[in-house]
Amino acid sequence: MKNLFNEELFKGPLKRSPLQVVIKMLVWLYWVVSLTIATLGAVYVIKKLPEYGYVILTAFYVVYLLASQVLATRIIEFDLGFQTFFSPAAVFVYPFIAQVVDMINEVYGERKTHHSILIAFVTQVLFVLLVGMVSSLSPAPFFELDEAWMSLFGLSIRITIASWITFLVCSNLDAWVFASLKKRFAEKEKQFRHGTVLNPYVWLRSGASDLVSLSLDSLIFVVIAFYGGPLPVMPLLIGQLISKNIIGFLDNPWFVLYKKMLDD
Q: Which domain does 190 fall in, by range?
């Protein structure tokens, strides 16, 4: 870990075998297909089962957040082609999280979105408490994976607190920015005559809310979790900012697709 977060935190493009390139392409293809299915499924639920729409979207929000907590424990290579750096694997889940928050906000409004955020936060607290409770128990003498378990789920108090503060601040800020932009440009959005896909005001509220929340997310989390510790804060901060905002930006077309299908 020491080398990972020092001289190797940023490096040039890696030489990959043809098989590695194919696997990488398949991973991104799976990511695209999964996000598309999630988008189509959300539209179907909202249109066909409106009485369950809010509950189901909030449930997906909770699942995505739980997945991100587990995936964040693995550091992966984030390869841009010309530059490779390291970031938590949870960056690949951020578009799902950002999208479902925007989905809830778009249909059910800012107040309901804040309710979903609160529900999700409570589930994260319960998850950590349950993990802590199980981790405090003595392992069976024949259980040989206890060290791996503790390494994976032994979250430090500082990182946990950093995660909770970041989530509460940035998720609610995302909801507020999204709702504020939607309200401010509501008339101009209605007057736009070239379809939802080209409507700049739809792109604006999705992209701007993600940019603000993800950038602040990186700043708050890295500073609280790692400032004054053994890991260099600035490289970690830059890596988080780049990876989260790139992935967050890639989410925008799916939100626009969601909005277009709702309007059709």
A: 11-133+150-263
Report the half-sphere exposure of 45 (CA within 13 A, side-chain side): 20
CA distance linking residue 186 with residue 189, whole number of Å: 5
- Prediction pTM value: 0.83
Residues 128/160, Cβ–Cβ less than 8 Å: yes
* DSSP string computed for 82-96: S-EEEEEGGGGTHHH
Residue 223 within a domain: yes
In a domain, 5, yes or no: no
Q: What is the DSSP letter of 154?
A: -
**What SS3 state is found at 195?**
coil
Task: Count the domains in the chain.
Answer: 1
Given pLDDT bands bounded at 50, 70 and 90, which one contains residue 231?
A: low
Asked, for residue 95, whether it belongs to a domain, the answer is yes
The answer for residues whose C-beta is within 8 angstroms of residue 46's C-beta and 6 or more apart is 53, 57, 107, 262
User: 85 - beta bridge partners?
Assistant: 10, 78
Q: Is 162 part of a structural domain of the chain?
A: yes
Q: What is the pLDDT of residues 35-57, one digit of tens each?
A: 899 999 999 999 999 999 999 99
Whether residue 19 has pLDDT greater than 90: no
Report the first-to-last Cα separation within the chain, whole angstroms: 51
Rg of the chain on CA atoms, in Å: 20
Q: What angle separates helix 94-135 from helix 146-153, to the nearest 10 degrees?
A: 130
